[in-house]
Structures are given as structure tokens and as C-alpha cells.
Write a structure and sequence with these properties.
The chain contains six helices and 13 strands. By secondary structure, the chain is α+β, with helices and mostly antiparallel strands. The protein has one domain: Jelly Rolls (Sandwich), CATH 2.60.120.
Length: 261
């Protein structure tokens, strides 16, 4: 199964629930190499960052590093990194991971192309006792102005650490993709408007998706998902590779245009 297209049961699960979980996709040795590359990249990017470059929008604090073509997310006003996007162009190891058959083969069942390519990549961090929550959202609203066809983008999320309730595991709303775009917030700035208006869905209870390190979760742009803060003493790191059909712009193209403006 690993490295292959969806099985019939996985296809049924994807159509019904909006996501597929595969355990033990990456070995402990592979994860060690990937994690080391992530930590080295983060250290290089944040070594000389200045607080004055930070911008609070929605629920996040962004720091545009247009020189390197990436966006750094901080945990509020702290010096703890919440994530970076995109990153594949900055690290050979992480770029090679994106073309791994264990990610590409299932993507052929999710993206309308036999040769899916990257749209963007995110490294999400929930540092011990610092990692903050990610609000309930769908990816689609964040992508609608940057991806050429956002409904044809799908994501593979690789868990680099065991993901539990204590360290802020992913929570999903099974079947939420069947409703298309959910109602979003109207009580803040334009970026906050990408988040789901939870008041409009009082009966929705996201389900925890605890997973061991090396697990990959595959999901599309309309799956509603969230995660809680990391209240534990353990890391919760994850790589998210999002794919689309070839010939369309990458998130890096958007950042490069910003750098020229």
C-alpha cells in the first residue's frame, strides 16, 4: 500500500470523510534526516530576524522574508517559530521529499493530473508548552486569491513526531468537504475572514486525529480542520506538501512578485 495509489477502501474513505490516513509511511531513520533538515533551515532563517518586520494579521504573526522567498510565522510576540511557508526551494532534502512516490502516487487520486507538482509547502511547529492553536479553517479560502484553481489543490501532511491530544494533534470534521466552502468570520481583518465562523456551526465538534510519527494524512482544500495548543513537554512538528496540476503558479511566484513591488 505504501507508495501506491489509493485502495478502493481509501477512495471510499476520501469521498466520504475528506481525508485518508496512512501509518508507518516514513521510517525513524528517514524522519531523523528530515527533522534535522527542518531544524537547520529554521535556525538559518531566524538567526538575524528583526521584530520590527513582524505583522499581526488574523490569528497569526507573519514575518515576510522576501529575500529567501518565504514567510515566517511566530508564536505571537515571542521568539518561538510557529511555521514557515514555502520552504522546498531552500533545502535539497525537503525538496527531494516532495517528489517521493509515497506522496506523489496517492496525489494522483486527489489532483486531476498524473504528474502533480507543488503549489506550496508548510512546516508547522508546535514547540513544547509554546505551540499555539490553529483555528478551525479550510485551506480553500487562504488559497483562493493565490492558487490558479484552489479547488484542485490537495495536501499530504507528514507527522515528524507522535501527535497526541497533549501536544496539539490535528482535529478534523469528517465529511465537511461535502459542503464546499463554509461560512467564514466577519469580525476582523481580511485574513481573519479566512477562518470558519464557528458560531454558525454550533453542533460541529472536530474529531481528534492522533497519529504516530511517520504517518501521512492526505486531504483536500475543503476539509475543515483545527488543532489545539501544545501543553506537553514534547515537540509536534509536521510537514505539509500541497500539490496541483502542472503549469500553474507556485506560492513562491507570489512572494517573488511581492519582492519586486
Amino acid at each position: 500500500m505504501v507508495g501506491a495509489s489509493f485502495t478502493d477502501s481509501e477512495r471510499q474513505a476520501y469521498d466520504r470523510d475528506g481525508y485518508v490516513v496512512r501509518s508507518n509511511v516514513f521510517s525513524s531513520n528517514e524522519l531523523a534526516t528530515i527533522t534535522r533538515a527542518c531544524e537547520d533551515l529554521i535556525a538559518d532563517l531566524v538567526a538575524d530576524r528583526q521584530e520590527a518586520r513582524r505583522h499581526r494579521v488574523g490569528s497569526y504573526v507573519f514575518d515576510p522574508d522576501l529575500t529567501h522567498g518565504t514567510m515566517i510565522k511566530w508564536e505571537g510576540d515571542s521568539d518561538v517559530v510557529h511555521g514557515i511557508e514555502p520552504f522546498a526551494h531552500l533545502c535539497d532534502t525537503l525538496n527531494e521529499c516532495a517528489s517521493d512516490a509515497r506522496l506523489i502516487d496517492p496525489m494522483r487520486d486527489m489532483v486531476p493530473s498524473d504528474t502533480p507538482v507543488l503549489f506550496t509547502e508548510k512546516l508547522n511547529l508546535k514547540r513544547p508548552e509554546h505551540g499555539g492553536a490553529n483555528p478551525l479553517h479550510q485551506d480553500y479560502p487562504y488559497w483562493v486569491d493565490v492558487a490558479e484553481v484552489p479547488e484542485e489543490v490537495a495536501t499530504a501532511m507528514i507527522f515528524l513526531d507522535d501527535s497526541t491530544l497533549a501536544n496539539g494533534c490535528l482535529h478534523v470534521v469528517p465529511g465537511s468537504h461535502q459542503l464546499g466552502k463554509w461560512q467564514t468570520r466577519a469580525d476582523g481583518d481580511a485574513f481573519l475572514a479566512n477562518e470558519i465562523d464557528t458560531d454558525a456551526y454550533p453542533d460541529v465538534i472536530p474529531q481528534p486525529l492522533e497519529a504516530s510519527a511517520g504517518t501521512v494524512v492526505f486531504f483536500g482544500p475543503f476539509l475543515a480542520h483545527t488543532s489545539a495548543p501544545n501543553t506537553s513537554a514534547r515537540e509536534r512538528r509536521a510537514l505539509l506538501y500541497s500539490y496541483q496540476p502542472p503549469g500553474r503558479r507556485h506560492m513562491l511566484d507570489v512572494l517573488r512578485r511581492l519582492n519586486k513591488s
